[in-house]
UniProtKB/TrEMBL annotation:
Keywords: Amino-acid biosynthesis, Aminotransferase, Branched-chain amino acid biosynthesis, Pyridoxal phosphate, Transferase. It comes from the Bacteria. Its EC number is 2.6.1.42. PANTHER family: AMINO-ACID AMINOTRANSFERASE, AMINODEOXYCHORISMATE LYASE. Acts on leucine, isoleucine and valine. Belongs to the class-IV pyridoxal-phosphate-dependent aminotransferase family. GO terms for biological process: isoleucine biosynthetic process; L-leucine biosynthetic process; L-valine biosynthetic process. The keyword Manganese does not apply. PROSITE patterns: AA_TRANSFER_CLASS_4. It catalyses: L-valine + 2-oxoglutarate = 3-methyl-2-oxobutanoate + L-glutamate; L-isoleucine + 2-oxoglutarate = (S)-3-methyl-2-oxopentanoate + L-glutamate; L-leucine + 2-oxoglutarate = 4-methyl-2-oxopentanoate + L-glutamate. One of its GO terms (molecular function) is L-leucine-2-oxoglutarate transaminase activity. This is Branched-chain-amino-acid aminotransferase. Its cofactor is pyridoxal 5'-phosphate.
């Protein structure tokens, strides 16, 4: 992805895509001192852009890493990058990380915190799953406890087991992996939250050790507006058998129906389709 045309915002400046580089002694590369955001711009407007910038700053705080930009400055950087590339529909990736400093080691008090804003054109995250329903593997790794790692941060370190689990899933012909958490409850996919439908009511994991996704919160609001009962609670794996519909939510995934998790099957039902369509309309409104 490094050798192509385009413009990236880096540490306050727009630079040619090929020049947006870091040194190998970048702290983040060795110690995962990095937080990021994934956003989507639709028709020239980033959906919930401010919420994403706020979450980025919060993630930085959770890692004890002060990001030297305000929400307003981050917003400006995103739109400057989009405009420079001529994009009105794109995925936006903001990353803030500890760079290379005067010395190298776990302690990084003397390393600068850097930020880059890039983007690319990105269609449906799960390909044709939007109509057919995605097939998910069950990850062998568990989402960790909030006492082990700051699970509310969108931090690079939390994604190590996501890449491993997604690779294992792809090797079995699945689009993604579903994680259970350290207690055994159903948690989230490698880059998306999960919802289930049973007898017209919706069940979704409590966000007590998973990312409380911005799309997740948006979709819960849409459901409650429709007078659909939503239960945010701990979900046991054995319950998967009794759920009739399932979907994933995420900025990249949007609302994607799920047809299968491990040996459990779900139908792409009317509530799933209704929410997926309504979400698509909302982000473009
Ligand atoms: N969980 C994980 C692990 C994710 O990476 C994402 C994508 N950011 C989500 C959930 C969904 O979050 P959002 O709706 O804010 O994109």
């Amino acid at each position: 992805y490094d050798d192509r045309d385009g413009v990236i915002w880096m540490d306050g400046q727009l630079v040619p895509w090929r020049d947006a580089k870091v040194h190998v002694l970048t702290h983040a590369l060795h110690y995962a001192s990095s937080v990021f955001e994934g956003e989507r711009c639709y028709n020239g407007k980033i959906f919930k852009g401010v919420e994403h910038s706020e979450r980025l700053l919060r993630s930085g705080e959770l890692l004890d890493m002060a990001i030297p930009y305000t929400v307003e400055e981050i917003e400006k950087a995103k739109y400057a990058m989009l405009e420079a590339n001529g994009w009105s529909d794109a995925y936006v990736r903001v990353v803030a990380f500890r760079g290379a400093g005067e010395d190298m080691g776990v302690s990084s008090s003397r390393n600068p915190v850097r930020m880059a804003v890039s983007g690319w054109e990105w269609g449906a995250y799960y390909g044709d799953a939007k109509t057919k329903g995605a097939k998910l593997d069950i990850a062998k790794w568990k989402r960790p406890s909030p006492e082990t790692i700051p699970t509310a941060a969108k931090a690079a370190g939390l994604y190590m087991i996501c890449t491993m689990s997604k690779h294992a899933a792809e090797a079995k012909g699945c689009s993604d992996a579903m994680f259970f958490d350290y207690r055994g409850y159903v948690a989230e996919a490698t880059g998306a939250n999960v919802f289930f439908v049973k007898d017209g009511e919706v069940h979704t994991p409590d966000p007590d050790c998973i990312l409380n996704g911005i799309t997740r919160q948006t979709v819960i609001g849409m459901l409650r507006e429709r007078q659909v009962v939503v239960h945010e609670r701990h979900i046991q794996p054995e319950e998967l058998e009794g759920f009739q519909q399932c979907w994933l939510t995420g900025t990249a995934a949007e609302v994607t129906p799920v047809g299968q998790i491990g040996d459990y099957n779900f139908e792409v039902g009317s509530l799933t389709r209704d929410i997926a369509d309504a979400y698509e309309k909302m982000v473009r409104a």
